[in-house]
Design goal:
heterodimer; A: mainly alpha; Serine Threonine Protein Phosphatase 5, Tetratricopeptide repeat; 4 domains; two-stranded antiparallel ribbon; 19 helices; 44% helix; 5% strand; globular; B: 1025 residues; mainly beta; Immunoglobulin-like; 9 helices
Chain lengths: 486, 1025
């Protein structure tokens, strides 16, 4: 009414044009919205923005699925050959720049980057205790998102001081892969400086998480000595749980082996199929579920990401990880009387680590599984440290020690310890990575970085498939160069 | 001195003499058509304010009328007549009805204009048509009566039809602006207007007429003028009452119990499974669920009004009630009740000042059942198991053991549906008019619309069978409790109540001046200039809570819910929009021959980006009245006018532009969900109005003593110069720009209208008209990467079946094309690869010729919009009888049959009986099987039907009782009538009704169990006194 009276007087009486322009400007506060300029007035605003920056971690289910589907570990599966066509193409190495799933990964990782950059834009508005550590978490998150981007796409646009918006259309350039890695390292080093050794809320980033991620980043660049020494910081701070399979249950979440874990909950009652990742549930889980399943312990799902017989058979009979990693649905049905249907590319195997379990979802059940994603496990740290020590020629004893810690837990004894050295040791560590970490989204990227992909993955073209194509939409709008051979 | 006195005396004498030249005049005013006396006619001595009005019998008496002066007789609906006073003899004056008038005026934005001098394009519907059609909502009358207007209605009580003027040019909404007595409203507001209060509706169709409304005028404008009183000094009462019964005239052929059982057995054995029904011999026809849910339902309306006035004021007051029960499910759970009150007061404060006060109130109450979806009542009736009785042995609604998804016993669904809504609406204006000099009028108008909507719905605990997806309770309606085997945590189901309260408040202030003048009696100008300020504010507040005591609607309220606090939810929203506008118009004519009009409007809007706050919308039109030329002398042609217009109008159907913080992001720590924030939207400072360039060329001609008239228009609309919100690059993440319009289109078409109107004799007159409308729209640009926007869909899994796509007509149907049935394996082998196909399955067309049947073969399979529509109306008066027929035809519109659930155990269409059972048995209906590997039910042209229809919308016979019967009672006119609405519909469509909409054009033609338009048998009485 204030606006109305004011404008009425001036505009109505005098009919002057200029005086009336205020009338058609709208302040966000008039409709109880907070606009960007008036935010970041309190510590709570910064804390909230940090939560907002964690949020996109929960959307990265496709990154995990593709890590196995693109590799020799699993078939895409689903209902039919056209069910989620983008994933089917990636499974067959026939993917091309128009791929909704890859576009989502690009968009969601950049959303994570942008949310941290938005905090960076507003970093100097106020000061408060703990602000440095808060930004340490933020920098870890930015490095996590950029690491996913560089793993999938190589060099990407590198912006660290502000968020991208419409005005950036057509002005973006791809930075080199090296420049992106340099930024990731810088962010993680900054984070390690300020992050606490432990946090009082499970799920928050710790110093060790940043160190483990940095070690991994070094390893991806074959910087073995940096990797070995960085990972060494984490050795001994965590432990391997005795029962391998237990850590993938709800009761095993945020356990002693968990270095960094993406958190989910089944309590948000999310139901909107228009944005399946917008709730707090893990949308990846329903994909892995047995088709039309009816029976105990598990819940029905969409039969994607089906472990191959090869993967199943690569486990030693005595290896406790086989049955903890892979559900043999035929044997299970025979044992429990459960029923199920065969979907596309049915292998008889399901990913038991990230499978829908009865009663672990809420509201629209497909969207709300509570299963956390164990992004960095201590076993992974040990194997990375072993690899860095072995491949860098730093300390083979230490490498074998770390490798055998992992194997002893798996077999329950030391009968299966490895005693080789040289390239055989390296190969043993690589094999062990997949036995330990299969169906957790690491395989494809391990194969690529170790140069094994072409020999293992059907249809893999060297010089092309190491990277996924930049989404066509981004190429069209921003004029970015496409990756080779796409 | 003496001479001065003499002069003065002479002057006095002269004055007295001149006074002596005044006479007393008496007379009678009659309707020239019927010779009936006309009460309430204004009789005024020209160039004075002196006058009277005629009484009941059309008589008047006026004292002191100077000889040689002129009396002006004027009356609404009749041609004004001037008569010179030559002596004091009583005079009889006959007034010609207005429909034959050359001086008829039409209301246009901020003024009025002689119909003959209009050079733009306007369609008009008058109160007579409304009285005959008796619509629930006034805009329904535009169908068949007005050209250039596309209306698709639904039978749902009180529901709004989808309406567009000259095509669907935009994906951002096509609703025209509605202006009621100068009060700007939306089409939704017409739910609160009593049709019997309406005097006329004018549809402004082209830029020349709509541009005075600038950025609001892009979708056309409907100007509604309501009734007012007159200065007769007498009060005219009008009472109208009608009562009718609604019925659904068609049911859809589905399988009866025996057929259903046999087909299911066959489908099961075709899939290698055992029999579903062991014994089908004693099933009979079973339950026809359609008959169970379709009810004959009453509709009634009662209106009373009083109109009148005196020398310096007029008034009109009215009250109305309308009640309509639903034919689907009946009036307990589905109805529309409306009470309306209206008041119009025009007061002459002095010679120069006049005040107009309008106020309207409406109260609307209703309940609704699910419609137009696979879970609607009708869909359930069509798909539920016919072998089951309505009630089981225990007296509960029967339950299917086989159907475990979506489809339930439709009567149980009706029983379990609980909701109500209550809307209060006030709108009106306070207007001051000032006439400082003759022909200059300055108007200062404040108008308002306030709407307050309350909704409540209750989702009880329901049981439709163990494991049914809609079941959330145990058979005894206790909550279902589940336990997580790992953690032992219990979760339970709940009933839930939702309540919401929404208010909308719009007010507008307008200040404008009208000045009419002539130069040398030849150059005539009508001008208007002014400004307007408008503010809209909408606010909503909602809440929900669970655990209502006794699982009962009676207690369903947040106040009584016992669920814990954590389960209560609240929400709110608010929206503000402001416009500032300056406008002007000049109409010019030279001796009524050459017409010229120019209109311009500058609009500023809060929704535009800071770089484009103001838009300018100009238009111009030209007309040439050939018949007024001196050289024009064509026998039989009474009137001939050519006209053309060109201009620009706009559309600001977008949201406000600013960057806002979203508090939607959340993350979980320690298993607890924690709220976060980030930037949710970013503004696009260049966002501007959608602009339409519109061209119109028209012709008006009248022949045979004005009894035959024809109006034809051709138009083109091009939406162009649209400043899009850019599609953000994926690297910008999930942040959004506020939604804006992303499409452009081209539309053209013809509006043709032919009318014959003849008073043959005192006893017999006839009026008949034929209206034809064609619309042809092509989407020329969609500014996103896929070049299209997906529209509506149906089914489970949900399939989108229409699109707004570059190069196609808006919302065209999209899917597979079929080519008969595979008769043998060799036919399958010879066809493109079609996974899962077996003999008896549908052969889909390999549209792209790549040898594989897949998604890429989907193509255009239909268009929900007609090639043309046609309205034919006939009105005959013979002695005391009047007879009216109104018809409507829609030709070339397709319907997508989307009400079939197509799961294994749901019921099926009776055409299944003609299924393929072996080579040569059928080439249209596929085999039945529980395992449909060919996906025969995928969205395809198999579900497209021709929805063309021809409908007798209204047939009414009225009889005016002889006056002798009630002369003594003081009644003036008593008419009784009988009426059938939607008496016959001729169509090939197999569903309930070929007019299918869910209230918006994106859903038009998709029949998910759409509410059929009922046939209504109605009787009524109309009394004037």
């Amino acid at each position: 009414m204030k606006y109305f009276k004011h404008t009425l007087m001036i505009c109505g009486m005098l009919l002057t044009f200029q005086a009336c322009s205020d009338y058609v400007d709208l302040e966000a506060s008039e409709v109880y919205q907070i606009d960007a300029d008036s935010y970041f007035q309190s510590e709570a605003n910064y804390q909230a923005a940090l939560i907002g920056s964690y949020d996109p971690l929960q959307w990265l289910y496709l990154n995990t699925l593709i890590g196995d589907i693109a590799s020799d570990n699993s078939f895409c599966g689903g209902e039919s050959a056209t069910d989620v066509i983008g994933l089917q193409q990636i499974d067959d190495m026939t993917h091309y720049p128009q791929n909704d799933n890859l576009t989502s990964i690009w968009r969601w990782c950049f959303e994570g980057v942008n949310r941290v950059n938005y905090m960076e834009e507003n970093k100097n508005k106020i000061d408060f205790d703990g602000k440095a550590a808060l930004y340490g978490e933020a920098y870890f998150l930015r490095s996590y998102y950029y690491f996913e981007l560089v793993k999938f796409f190589g060099g990407v646009p590198l912006i660290t001081d502000r968020r991208l918006d419409a005005s950036d259309t057509g002005t973006l350039q791809r930075a080199s892969k090296e420049e992106v890695y340099a930024q990731i390292e810088a962010d993680l080093l900054n984070a390690i400086d300020v992050l606490p050794a432990s946090q009082n809320q499970a799920g928050r980033v710790t110093k060790s998480a940043a160190q483990a991620l940095l070690g991994k980043v070094y390893l991806y660049q074959d910087k073995f000595s940096e990797a070995a020494s960085m990972l060494q910081n984490v050795i001994g701070l965590y432990s391997l749980v005795p029962d391998y399979g237990s850590q993938f249950l709800k009761s095993g979440e945020n356990g002693p082996e968990s270095v960094f874990e993406i958190q989910y909950s089944n309590e948000s009652e999310w139901w909107d199929w228009g944005c399946p990742t917008c709730g707090e549930g893990n949308f990846g889980i329903i994909h892995n579920g047995p088709r039309a399943y009816s029976g105990p312990e598990f819940a029905t799902g969409w039969s994607f990401n089906l472990p191959t017989p090869n993967l199943y058979n690569s486990f030693d009979e005595a290896d406790s990880r086989r049955d903890a990693s892979i559900l043999d649905i035929e044997a299970w049905a025979a044992e429990t009387g459960a029923s199920y249907a065969e979907g596309y590319e049915h292998t008889g195997y399901y990913n038991r680590k990230y499978i829908p379990r009865a009663g672990e979802s809420g509201a629209q059940t497909e969207l709300n599984y509570l299963n956390n994603y164990r992004a960095i496990r201590y076993a992974d740290v040990l194997l990375m440290a072993a690899e860095a020590n072995a491949r860098g020629g730093i300390n083979e004893d230490l490498a074998r020690n770390y490798l055998n810690q992992v194997r002893q837990r798996a077999f329950g004894n030391s009968d299966h310890n490895i005693s080789t050295s040289g390239q055989a040791l390296v190969q043993a560590i690589w094999n062990e990575r997949n036995l330990e970490l299969s169906m957790e989204g690491h395989r494809f990227f391990d194969l690529v970085r170790t140069g094994q992909a072409a020999s293992v993955i059907d249809g893999f073209v060297t010089g092309k498939h190491e990277l996924f194509p930049v989404p066509q939409l981004e190429v069209d709008i921003s004029g970015l160069n496409q990756n080779p051979q796409y | 001195m003496n001479s001065k006195i003499l002069t003065f005396t002479l002057f006095l004498l002269m004055s007295m003499l001149s006074v002596a030249q005044e006479v007393n005049i008496t007379g009678t005013v009659l309707d020239a058509d019927s010779d009936m006396p006309l009460p309430g006619v204004n009789v005024i001595i020209k160039n004075t304010t002196k006058g009277v009005a005629t009484d009941f019998d059309g008589n008047f008496s006026l004292e002191g009328v100077p000889l040689s002066s002129t009396l002006v007789f004027s009356y609404v609906g009749f041609v004004t007549k001037e008569v010179q006073v030559i002596n004091s003899n009583p005079i009889t004056v006959q007034l010609m009805p207005d429909s034959q008038s050359l001086d008829e005026v039409v209301i246009v934005g901020y003024g009025q204009q002689k119909v003959t001098n209009v050079s733009g394009s306007i369609s008009t519907v008058k109160s007579e048509a409304l009285e005959q059609l008796k619509p629930v909502r006034v805009e329904e009358a535009l169908q068949s009566q007005a050209t250039g207007v596309n209306i698709v209605s639904t039978g749902s009580p009180g529901a709004a039809p989808a309406i567009a003027i000259r095509g669907i040019v935009s994906n951002a909404g096509s609703s025209p602006l509605v202006v009621i007595d100068g009060i700007q409203q939306s089409i939704a507001d017409l739910n609160a207007l009593n049709p019997s209060d309406v005097e006329s509706m004018n549809v402004l169709k082209d830029a020349a007429t709509a541009a005075i409304y600038g950025v609001k005028g892009g979708n056309g404008v409907i100007l509604v003028t309501t009734k007012s009183g007159n200065k007769s000094g007498k009060t005219t009462f009008n009472f109208d009452s009608s009562y009718g019964i609604q019925e659904v005239t068609r049911t859809i052929d589905v399988l009866n119990a025996s057929e259903y059982a046999a087909i299911l057995n066959e489908a099961s054995s075709n899939a290698g499974q055992g029999l579903v029904f062991d014994n089908i011999g004693n099933l009979g026809v079973g339950t026809n669920w359609q008959d169970e849910v379709l009810k004959d339902a009453p509709i009634q309306s009662h209106n009373v009004s009083a109109a009148g006035g005196s020398d310096n004021m007029t008034y009109f007051i009215s009250g109305g009630y309308l009640g309509q029960d639903g034919v689907v499910g009946g009036g307990d759970k589905s109805y529309f009740d409306r009470i309306t009150l209206a008041e119009r007061l025009n007061i002459d404060l002095s010679d120069k000042f006049k005040v107009l006060v309008n106020n309207n109130y409406a109260n609307i109450k209703g309940k609704a059942l699910a419609e137009n979806s696979i879970t609607s009542v009708l869909s359930n009736a069509l798909n539920f198991d016919p072998t089951l009785p309505v009630y089981d042995d225990n007296g509960n609604y029967s339950i299917s053991d086989n159907i475990t998804q979506e489809i339930v016993n439709p009567l149980a669904l009706i029983d379990n549906t609980y909701n109500n809504n209550n809307t209060n609406k006030w709108f009106g204006k306070l207007e001051l008019q000032y006439e400082p000099i003759e022909d200059l009028r300055i108007s200062s108008r404040f108008s308002y619309t306030y709407v307050d909507v309350y909704n409540k719905s209750f989702s009880p605990l329901v049981f439709y069978g163990v494991g049914h997806t809609a079941t959330n309770a145990n058979p005894d309606l206790s909550p279902i409790v589940t336990v997580d085997p790992e953690t032992g945590e219990e979760t339970s189901t709940h009933n839930r109540v939702n309540e919401s309260k929404t208010t909308y408040f719009t007010y507008t202030y307008e200040l404008f001046g009208n000045y009419d003048f002539s130069i040398n009696e030849a150059h005539n100008f009508q001008t208007v200039a002014g400004m307007s300020l408008q503010r809209y504010k909408g606010e909503g507040l909602s809440g929900s809570a669970q655990d209502i005591p006794f699982n009962s609607w009676e207690y369903a309220d947040i106040a009584s819910a016992t669920g814990d606090l954590a389960s209560q939810q609240t929400g709110s929203w608010s929206d503000v929009k402001r416009n500032i506008s300056y406008f002007g118009r000049v109409n010019y004519d030279y001796k009524d021959r050459y017409l010229l009009s120019f209109t311009g409007r500058v609009d500023g809007s809060t929704v535009f980006g800071t770089d484009n706050k103001y838009g300018f919308f100009p238009s111009g039109s030209l007309g040439w009245v050939l018949s007024n030329e001196e050289f024009f002398d064509v026998n039989g042609i009474d009137f001939l006018k050519l006209r053309g217009s060109y201009g620009n109008v706009g559309n600001d159907n977008i949201s406000n532009q600013f960057s806002s913080i979203s508090t939607f992001p959340k993350y979980t720590f320690d298993g607890n969900i924690i709220a976060g924030s980030t930037l949710g939207t970013i503004p696009d400072e260049t966002v501007s109005w959608e602009s339409q360039i519109q061209m119109n060329a028209g012709l008006d001609i009248r022949l045979l003593d004005n009894s035959l008239s024809f109006t034809g228009d051709y138009y083109q609309k091009t939406t162009e110069d649209l400043l899009f919100a850019p599609v953000l690059p994926p690297s910008a993440g999930t942040v959004t720009s506020p939604p804006t319009n992303i499409g452009t289109s081209k539309t053209n078409g013809f509006d043709l209208s032919l009318t014959y109107n003849k008073t043959v004799s005192e006893d017999f007159s006839i009026n008949t008209s034929l209206n034809v409308t064609t619309v042809n729209t092509e989407v020329t640009e969609v500014n996103n990467d896929s070049k299209r926007q997906d529209g509506a869909g149906y089914g489970i899994p949900f399939t989108v079946i229409n699109r707004f796509e570059e190069g196609y007509s808006p919302w065209y149907f999209y899917g597979y094309k079929t080519d008969g049935i595979f008769q043998s394996q060799s036919e399958i082998d010879g066809h493109a690869t079609q996974n899962g196909a077996q003999p008896g399955d549908i052969r889909f067309v390999d549209v792209n010729g790549d040898g594989v049947i897949d998604d890429l073969d989907r193509t255009e399979i239909g268009n929900p919009f007609p090639d043309f529509t046609l309205g034919w109306n006939l009105s005959i008066n013979y002695k005391s009888f009047d007879f009216n027929v109104s018809t409507f035809a829609s030709v070339g519109n397709d319907i997508y049959r989307a009400y079939e659930r197509n799961s294994a155990f749901t019921n099926r269409s009776a055409r299944t009986l003609d299924r393929w059972t072996g080579p040569g048995t059928s080439n249209s209906e596929p085999r039945v099987t529980f395992v449909d590997n060919n996906n025969n039910t995928r969205a395809s042209d198999r579900y497209i039907e021709d929805g063309s229809y021809f409908r007798f919308k209204n047939i009414q016979l009225g009889y005016t009782l002889p006056k002798s019967l009630y002369d003594a009672t003081g009644l003036n006119n008593v008419r009784i009538y009988a009426q059938v609405k939607n008496a016959f519909t001729f169509t090939k469509y197999s569903g309930y009704d070929p007019e299918v909409t869910a209230g918006s054009f994106v859903d038009t033609g998709i029949d998910r169990g759409a509410y059929p338009i009922p046939r209504i048998w109605m009787m009524g009485i109309n009394v004037k006194f």
